[in-house]
Amino acid sequence: MKKYQAGSIRNVCLLSHGSVGKTTLLEAACFTAKATSKSGKVDNGSSIFDSRSDEKERKMTISMHAGFCEWNDTKINFLDTPGFLDFLSDARAALRVVETAVILIDAVDGIQVGTELVSSYVDEAGIPRMFFVNGMDEENADFQKTLDAVKNAYGTGVAPVVIPIGKGPSFKGIIDLVTKDAYEYQREGNGLGKKIEIPADMKDSVDSLRQSLMESIAETDEDLMNKYFESGELSDDDLRSGLAKGVASGSVYPLIAGSGLLNIGVDQLLTKIVNLCPAADSRKEVEVLENGSAKMIPCSESGPAAAFVFKTISEEHLGEINIVRVFSGKLVTGTDELNPTKGLAERIGNMYFLRGKERCDTTEISAGDIGGLLKLKDTHTNDSLVDKNAKFRFPPIQLPEPLVSVAITAKQQGDEDKIAVGLNKLHEEDISFTYKFHPDIHQSILSAMGDIQLDVLLDGLKHRFKVEVEKKQPKISYRETITKPVKYVEYTHKKQSGGAGQYARVFIDLEPLQRGGGYEFVDKIVGGVIDQSLRPSVDKGVHSKLEEGIIAGYPIVDIRVSLVDGKTHPVDSKDIAFQIAGREVFKKAFEMASPILLEPVVDLKVSVPEEYTGDIMGDLSSRRGKIGGMNPIGKYQTISAKVPEAEVQNYSTTLRSLTQGRGFYTKAFSHYEPVPGELAKKIIETHKKEEEVTA
Ligand SMILES: Nc1nc2c(ncn2[C@@H]2O[C@H](COP(=O)(O)OP(=O)(O)OP(=O)(O)O)[C@@H](O)[C@H]2O)c(=O)[nH]1
Ligand SMILES: [Mg+2]
Question: Are residues 545 and 498 in the same domain?
Fold first, then answer.
């Protein structure tokens, strides 16, 4: 395959709300650039990108795809990310390795929840962006309304550079405002526009739009401003270079109209990516971690190798492929590179440039490029591959905490290992979910970003790993503690019938600690009334109750036990006797110290369009939530609240129904708080009943 220098490579990711047309657009782009011989369709399962069986079945992208094509002697690497909210973590991963984000906007629906979310990710990533208004062929498409909405949301930097001719059934072409050329297309054709005259009825609007484009570009640069003042306009070249500078500095966001499905305007998108977006070599340095602190390393092809694995995928018949972006040096087949996170040397074997399920062999991936590596020993998403002498690694992809959880057990007894192995493998391909056994509630919990992701994971277990699971609502991780101190509580353990005798007498003080205080054991024995060697046995006895709880079967926290007095027997006092006495005296004291239950409280941040704030706050209050404040972002309001976890276990469903799917939220553990009396009573009763059943 042809070799490209970093200056001839553009790395872009496609982002949007779900189903706006990213994958369709990428199919059209590859077909237009003649990288593929036909334009695959998401709808009939013929896309080379959405090619996983679950993607075909659900007609959506579930896992990011890489693709590339050549346009005007430039290699464009695309990352097609999923738009469905549950899978947006891949958008964050893609943004780590590209120089430009192309955000698709639906020409009918305008800005949606997902648009806001991915835009906020682009803000965080701090990279240039472009907009593609997709679906201009749709009956209710409205370019002006969409443009206004985008300007309104993302500011005056939004600059229309390619506008549509017609809309809906009469959408037939586009006008490039930079060159003032108009093009007509064959619907679902080869994607190459045929030059035509600007329609007479559009001439005026083209002139005025071009004028305002010149004005806004002139405003970004003093030289251009002077030229504009002198001659009243800018040359095509000045306009193009001014736009490119504005894009690179993040002050201008070019906007292009088209239709991925009909392949109209896609060639213009490719041209604008080549002409206006920064090349891969524009990135002069990149952040890495060395001994836990951040530092910058230069990005140069002649430097030592440094690549970041931003996605691991699994291909039928091939196995795992690790997709990397090379930031410095190059990866070459047959050489060894270091995976510093695993402390392991990896031999670089077969490598490919990926276009969905299609692959082009290569023996080298150099700085600025993106490619896939086959058969590494133990390298996955978030790992780095660096020169053996390097001491750094790339920082991991930042992910939000999962939002929904389910407790799972194997349908078939004995299949538990298969679940663990399967989920472990799936985790290598999707780092956004967690799976672990929680000893306090005796459940294995699978947590993900949403219900669809949970379903996809469980389907994956069933079809790929042949194991089926039962799902249950996870239990809440309550805690037990006390509210008042008790002093000098006594217990005597005596066993003198049959066999060796046992004797232990102990006195303890029990007092509450602050939240988060955990457990403390203090030895206050004076004068050796209990032998030094037997005192830890009391601590051990208390410990045995800490995990299993006393009133409702939950771990005990935030207490101090002081061993204050006791008595021993010259023969019968031994470890086991003091352990039993410790356990029993603790149980007795705990019940005397007004025990309560604590429940986990989470920090919830709910973002919704303005009109839903009242409903959201009302609902949160009815869930025992305490509203902390409101913060506007664009048209959205973010409501912060502290809410008991038990009340928001299924919040994604609630939010969807309260806002018709127009809200999103984040959730993170905050602290423990007492469970209100009535509720606590119910939980304790349920525990007693469960104990009776198992007794
Ligand atoms: N009319 C029309 N339909 C389109 C266009 N682009 C995509 N579609 C349709 O919209 C649906 C979603 O298209 P996709 O390409 O899968 O959208 P996506 O953004 O990749 O979706 P996710 O990956 O799930 O976020 C499909 O039914 C496409 O045929 C377009 O320009 N016009
Ligand atoms: Mg897609």
Answer: yes
Other Cβ atoms within 10 Å of 566 Cβ, number? 24
Q: Helix, strand or coil for residue 245?
A: helix
Q: How far apart are CA 6 and CA 75, in angstroms?
A: 9
In-domain check, residue 448: yes
Kindly state whether residue 625 falls inside one of the protein's structural domains: yes
Give 110's DSSP letter. B
Pick the last residue of a domain from 281, 296, 328: 281
Answer whether residue 399 is part of any domain: no
Range of the domain at 548: 480-593
Q: Which residue's CA is minimally distant from atom 21 of ligand 1?
A: 19
In this predicted model, what pLDDT tens digit does every residue of 509-546 receive, in sequence order? 999 999 999 999 999 998 888 988 999 999 999 999 99
Domain match, 292 and 266 both: no
Q: Are residues 78 and 175 in the same domain?
A: yes
What burial letters (b/e) apply to 584-620, b meaning 16+ CB within 10 Å? bbbbbbbeebebbbbbbbbbbbbbbbeebbeebbebb
- Over its C-alpha atoms, the chain yields an Rg (Å, rounded) of 32
**Is residue 277 located within the same domain as residue 289?**
no
Domain boundary residue, one of 393, 426, 451: 393
Report residue 632's pLDDT band, with 50, 70 and 90 as the boundaries.
confident
Q: Are residues 91 and 191 in the same domain?
A: yes
> In angstroms, rounded to a whole number, what is the distance separating the alpha carbons of residues 41 and 50?
9
Q: How far apart are CA 192 and CA 187, in angstroms?
A: 11
400 has pLDDT over 90: no
Q: What spacing in Å lies between the alpha carbon of 128 and ligand 2's midpoint? A: 21
pLDDT score at 500: 79
Residues 209-234 pLDDT 10s: 999 999 989 988 899 999 998 988 89
Mutate to test the pocket of ligand 1, among 17, 24, 31 (most ligand atoms within 8 A of CB): 24
So what's the pLDDT on residue 139? 95
Find the mean pLDDT for residues 361-369. 97
The two three-digit tokens of residue 633, written as one number: 């972002």
Going by alpha carbons, the residue nearest to atom 29 of ligand 1 is 43
| pLDDT (tens digit per residue) in 429-477 | 999 999 999 998 999 999 999 999 999 999 999 999 999 999 999 999 9
- Examine the domain organization and report whether 442 and 548 are in the same domain: no
**Residue 276's CATH number:** 3.40.50.300
Let me know whether 442 and 579 are in one domain.
no
Ligand 2 centre to CA of 571 (Å) is 77
Of 14, 15, 20, 86, the one to substitute when testing ligand 1's pocket (max ligand atoms within 8 A of C-beta) is: 20
Q: Give the type of residue at 296.
A: M
